[in-house]
Design goal:
Blueprint lengths: L25 E9 L2 E10 L4 E4 L2 E4 L6 E5 L13 H13 L4 E3 L7 H10 L2 E5 L21 H15 L5 E5 L8 H13 L5 E2 L15 H10 L13 H8 L8 E6 L10 H10 L3 E6 L7 E4 L6 E4 L30 H8 L2 E7 L4 E6 L9 E9 L2 E9 L10 E5 L3 H6 L8 E9 L11 E10 L15 E4 L3 E6 L2 E6 L5 E6 L2 E2 L8 E3 L6 H5 L2 H4 L9 E7 L5 E7 L4 E9 L5 E9 L11 E9 L4 E8 L12 E8 L16 E10 L5 E15 L3 H4 L18 E10 L23 E10 L1
Parallel strand pairs: 5-6, 5-11, 6-7, 7-8, 8-9, 10-11
Antiparallel strand pairs: 1-2, 3-4, 12-13, 14-15, 15-18, 16-17, 16-19, 19-20, 21-22, 22-23, 23-24, 24-25, 26-31, 27-28, 28-29, 29-30, 30-37, 31-36, 32-33, 32-34, 34-35, 35-36, 35-37
């Protein structure tokens, strides 16, 4: 180009457009010549798509897409900050398996090859500049207001945009992260918009009034929506449900809401993720966000205690840790990219196929395609009709013949459904319909038969048994000096007169309890990272092994034994009632009365009982939500069914030990030997249960975090069983103060729980 510059334009007719769902690419070849001599040939993949903001929404090719995103750091458990191309592809594959369609490059430009792969496989990218001055402060002292750093702010964004501008995967630019707000960012915004007007530009701290407080009240979000600085998207961090709703319901807030960081996935977390996506699907202006974050940032190492594999974190490499304990381990997947249990809840609420049971009698379902650009032509619907967890009919429907276009629904009849529902032999039994959507061909790194969505519908509810006092005429009672022994049908129940607790439970002379451990009231759990962050470790510590003083011990006329215990630390009274019937079934009633005038009213973390069974009872069979661990506010992705699992597989090895293995909506829970002998537990209401090779005290050492790893744990040679009415939810808003929503808390109040222990022979 002699004497200046030149622009060459070309038009392609009927172009195949690029989206994350349809990553259509063309190859642009640029040849630099000197006369007839070729000096250089550059090939560049290019994609054609249009990004705009219109009607308070972010549009891709005219469609208001949902951003089902995560934040991703470049980190590998073996390579550290060096990630191979093969492992980049692995990350994209895992993301797609979890229905993730967008990545924020937090907090710096990535390896250039990453963007090539996102172009190729279809990932929306928020491309962030390498600009953070968190440590300098956010008010008057912020570098964003210091004119000496004006050029720095602009140049870092220039480098980001100029290098990466040709990637179709990049649908928005981010000016930086946690660096205050001021003229320097406004100038950077102006430069980016002048250079590239085809993409929106966002910056989180332009959404506030210059403050940075992750626990801002709702009012400040309303104010921010009105007085936002230079940002095209309202992109807060860790806004809770009420804050989001407050913004969305204000007419003057005209920017799309897209959370730059939200749903902090640290440790056993993601409880309440449903509430975010209920809002997303309710308010068109709320288009999703980027979960913090994708992967636990740990390095593969060996335990100094056991020699087992661990993932090392801050504090493992020197006395002055460069990170806040295990705080960088806050991902959906473990360092080796194994999905953490909470990842499946994300996959569920990110899924692109949703169903409604239109007719419970005839079995017609409405199938909605939440994609914006592709039909469901390569998807099979696999269905199963179950009666109390057992499939009575199943089959496969190819959705291709229904041609379910993007953002449309079709009604489909489920074969065999009506016959089973009407069958008299199933009357009064719980019936469910489970729908699983699977690919019928390979697609964008996903393999044929990969499940991409599922839903389950309860057709008729479970009939829980009424636990009245059963016949006790054949029950024998032997009164010893220290114990009272109840016996019936080969079952012996030994109750301590000193503690009021069951010390021994024998079936056909075989001990069901480990010597030295009683059937004990259980109010506590091994605190999660979120529990540490919300100070439950200290605020609720009174419920951690409270002292229990036996005030009364009596045997009623009906044969029941009643023990009244006083819990001094919580100013409460616990009444335990044991009733053994003629069949050898032990009913346990657990009634807690608290002091309404108590000065300290700590929340409970769990309410139920625990017992330790010998090591040969090494498997569980249960009818409830599974197969993964699940909790009251994180069980949507799991399904009602009958599951058989090994106790050794119940604990999930989070980077740092914590609560694990819980199951909800349990109808019955059996702890068995390989010969199917043991104990069955059931109640007159759904229970929450777990069986681990660890005591709670193994997983929780105290209110101050120690340098611990799951690989340091040594399994006990017994099975620790928790039978609970409820356990507190997990929460996910953040890990530095937020609690689960109120209905998933266990407040300081009266509780009553009744369950049965039945011998399994």
């Amino acid at each position: 180009l002699q004497g200046g510059s030149s622009t060459v334009e070309s038009t392609i007719q009927n172009v195949a457009k690029w989206t994350a769902e349809t990553p259509n690419l063309y190859t642009l070849r640029a040849t630099l010549m000197d006369g007839d001599k070729v000096l250089e040939v550059i090939r560049q993949n290019v994609g054609f798509r249009k990004i705009e903001i219109k009607g308070k929404q972010l549009l891709v090719n005219g469609q208001p897409v949902l951003i089902k995103g995560v934040n991703r750091h470049e980190i590998d458990p073996d390579g550290g900050y060096v990630v191979s191309v093969e492992n980049m592809i692995r990350d994209i594959k895992v993301a797609k398996q979890l229905n993730i369609n967008a990545i924020r490059t937090s907090h710096y430009p990535n390896d250039p090859r990453w963007y090539d792969l996102c172009d190729e496989y279809g990932i929306y990218v928020m491309a962030e500049a390498n600009l953070e001055s968190h440590g300098m402060g956010f008010g008057k002292e912020t570098l964003a207001k210091n004119e000496l750093f004006n050029k720095t702010h602009i140049e870092r964004n220039m480098n980001n945009v100029k290098v990466l501008k040709n990637h179709p995967c990049i649908i928005m630019w981010s000016l930086g992260n946690e660096a205050g707000y001021g003229k320097n960012f406004e100038d950077a915004y102006d430069w980016v918009k002048a250079y590239d007007s085809s993409r929106p530009v966002q910056y989180e701290m332009a959404c506030s009034t210059g403050k940075h407080d992750e626990t801002r009240p709702v009012e400040s979000y309303e104010l921010a929506g009105l007085k936002a600085g230079k940002t095209d998207i309202f992109c807060p961090m860790y806004a809770d449900y009420d804050s989001c709703r407050a913004y969305l319901e204000k007419d003057y807030c005209d920017k799309p809401l897209l959370q730059q960081e939200y749903a902090h996935a640290m440790g056993n977390s993601m409880g309440g993720f449903k509430q975010y996506w209920d809002l997303v699907r309710q308010y068109p202006q709320y288009q999703g966000g980027f979960i913090w974050d994708f992967v636990d940032q740990g390095l593969r190492d060996k335990s100094k205690i056991t020699g087992n594999q661990i993932y090392a974190y801050g504090g493992d490499y020197g006395r002055f840790p460069m990170s806040d304990e295990n705080f960088n381990n806050n991902g959906l997947v473990s360092p080796d990219r194994r999905p953490n249990p909470h990842a499946y809840e994300v996959k569920y609420f990110h899924q692109n196929i949703w169903s409604k049971l239109v007719n419970k009698v005839k079995g017609t379902v409405s199938v909605f395609n939440e994609n914006f650009f592709v039909p469901l032509n390569n998807v099979n619907l696999v269905y199963s009709i179950e009666v109390e967890g057992k499939s009575m009919a199943n089959g496969l429907i190819n959705l291709g013949k229904y041609n379910i276009l993007p953002q449309t629904s079709k009604t489909i009849a489920i074969p065999g459904y009506a016959k089973i529902v009407a069958d008299k032999k199933y009357r009064g039994k719980e019936k469910t319909l489970t729908l699983s959507y699977k690919l019928n061909s390979d697609s964008l790194l996903l393999s044929k038969d990969e499940e991409i969505a599922h839903q389950q519908f309860v057709i008729s509810d479970y009939k829980f048994p009424v636990l009245n006092s059963s016949e006790t005429a054949k029950v024998k009672a032997v009164d010893h000096a220290k114990y009272l022994v109840l016996s019936a049908n080969g079952v012996d129940v030994t109750i301590s007169k000193a503690t009021g607790l069951v010390s021994y439970l024998d079936v056909d002379k075989t001990p069901m309890l480990v010597r030295g451990f009683d059937l004990t009231p259980d109010f506590w759990r091994a605190c999660t990272d979120n529990d540490f962050g919300s100070h439950m470790t200290t605020l609720s510590a009174a419920w951690n092994k409270p002292s229990m003083e036996l005030k009364n011990f009596t045997r009623k006329e009906n044969g029941s034994v009643v023990a009244e215990l006083y819990l001094k630390e919580t100013e409460s009274t616990l009444t335990l009632t044991y009733t053994l019937n003629n069949d050898g079934e032990l009913t346990v009633e657990q009634d807690l009365k608290v002091n309404p005038d108590a000065e300290n009213k700590p929340n409970l973390l769990r309410y139920g009982m625990e017992l330790q069974m010998p090591k040969e009872f090494d498997r569980v069979e249960f009818y409830g939500k599974g197969p993964n661990e699940n909790y009251a506010d994180r069980n949507n992705s799991d399904r009602l069914g009958i599951f058989t699992q090994l106790v050794k597989d119940q604990y999930y090895p989070y980077v740092r030990p914590q609560e694990s293995g819980n199951k909800t909506q349990v109808r019955y829970w059996k702890v068995l030997t390989k010969d199917n002998k043991g104990l069955e537990f059931f109640s007159n209401e759904p229970m929450e249960c777990s069986s681990l090779n660890y005591l709670t005290s193994d997983l929780y050492r105290g209110p101050v975090k120690n340098q611990e790893h799951s690989g340091d744990l040594v399994p006990r040679d017994f099975t620790s069983v928790h039978i609970s009415q409820r356990q507190m939810g997990l929460g996910c808003i953040d890990t530095w103060g937020a609690l689960p929503i109120e209905k998933y808390m266990l407040p300081y109040q009266d509780y009553a729980f009744k369950f049965v222990i039945r011998p399994v022979r």
